[in-house]
Amino acid sequence: MSVRDPILHSVPIAELRPTQITVGYREVEAKRRRWREIGDGDREKFLGSHMIPVLLGPKKRRYVIDHHHLARALQEEGVENVLTTVVADLHDLEKDAFWVVADHRAWVHPYDSDGVRRDVGDLPKRIEDLADDPFRSLAGELRRAGGFAKDTTPFSEFLWADFLRRRIKRKDVKDDFSDALEEALALARSKDAVYLPGWCGPHED
User: A single Pfam family, by name (predicted)?
Assistant: First the structure.
């Protein structure tokens, strides 16, 4: 079922389907700034090296399984098409079976901005409809600040977001992001976070 060679397709961002409910809007804004810093002559090269991995689902719709933030940022910057690479062709499956496979392969993350798991029917139909999760933004900034290491665990930054959500008030994240980040850095080094992917806290001999 998997497509081994990276067969690329140029696809309108408007046709891509998300496999998660939220993104961090601060993360999206950061990617928008980076896009604006790229010279016009280098933008094609950037897009060619940042392909969007997708599942080919029922009705041959393309479901994004990574780079939701980038897709949203590019769309907001007026980019209409991106290159996608099909990770798995599941278009022959019935809709329910498709989501079972996606769930078991950790290709879907249907958690809302409160960290509550929802039905896959609650997933947005368009990239532009992804909701904001400020804790996802906090987790992304925490990783960049060295709070934890980049990890191959699927949705690792959402796991960190959920950890932070249970310990820092949403109001604090929105009102004073810098203070919230300092608090997050302290929490990330604590033993409470030892189970999380990429934990970089002190190890006892």
Answer: ParBc_2
**Do 18 and 95 lie in a common domain?**
yes
Note the pTM of the prediction, 2 decimals.
0.92
Could you tell me the CATH number of the domain that includes residue 83? Answer: 3.90.1530.10
d(C-alpha 90, C-alpha 101), whole Å: 9
Which one, of 165, 107, 156, lies nearest residue 138 by Cα? Answer: 165
Question: How far apart, in whole angstroms, are the C-alpha atoms of residue 125 and residue 131?
Answer: 12
Distances (CA, A) of 127 to 25, 66, 74, 164, 166: 12, 12, 10, 25, 27
Same domain (yes/no): 105, 32: yes
Q: Give the residue among 123, 160, 119, 121 at the shortest CA–CA distance from 140.
A: 160
Say yes or no: 32 and 88 in one domain: yes
